Amino acid sequence: SQQGEEDPQALSIQEGENATMNCSYKTSINNLQWYRQNSGRGLVHLILIRSNEREKHSGRLRVTLDTSKKSSSLLITASRAADTASYFCATEKAAGNKLTFGGGTRVLVKP
Amino acid sequence: IAGITQAPTSQILAAGRRMTLRCTQDMRHNAMYWYRQDLGLGLRLIHYSNTAGTTGKGEVPDGYSVSRANTDDFPLTLASAVPSQTSVYFCASSDSVGVGYGYTFGSGTRLTVV
What we know:
heterodimer; A: mainly beta; five-stranded antiparallel beta sheet; 57% strand; globular; B: mainly beta; four-stranded antiparallel beta sheet
């Protein structure tokens, strides 16, 4: 079963635009993580936000977490063609539990 | 280069055959994991190991077995492959358990069972 559900499933934008994708989950969590997967490659860890945090930044990435709504968003600012990839959210329900991944958002950044 | 090495990168396997997917990490991470990725289903946890000498079952363990004889290696074995095990398999590791560390993933093994 998937704990996280990403929305939208696919996103197409022009280079320079911002890309926003959302993740909803069902049960309380210890932390939520975002990963990127380029075609044919493994997942790469982008950012982790803990349940007591509301917002985190890393370079052009901004992640928010709303535990009352059980949702998170990932914003990529000033997108580049190299940002073309699938993005996955993953949740750790409690300390020591394993990550549960959502189905991902496919992002296409057109030059 | 520090990271996770998976082998083979791809394999076509006859149904009923036994196969072991190899995974080796050089980061001295305690925890290791095996996921399978299927279109529309995201990644699902097969088995995991919190530390050398211990293993546990994930969400979809049936038909798979693992061992963790040392810190670096975490092989996944399909005892008798079936077509529903056609998937992309990812091995991952994390530095510790229970404190919210990100996972490091290998590049995957694409397995087709015919």
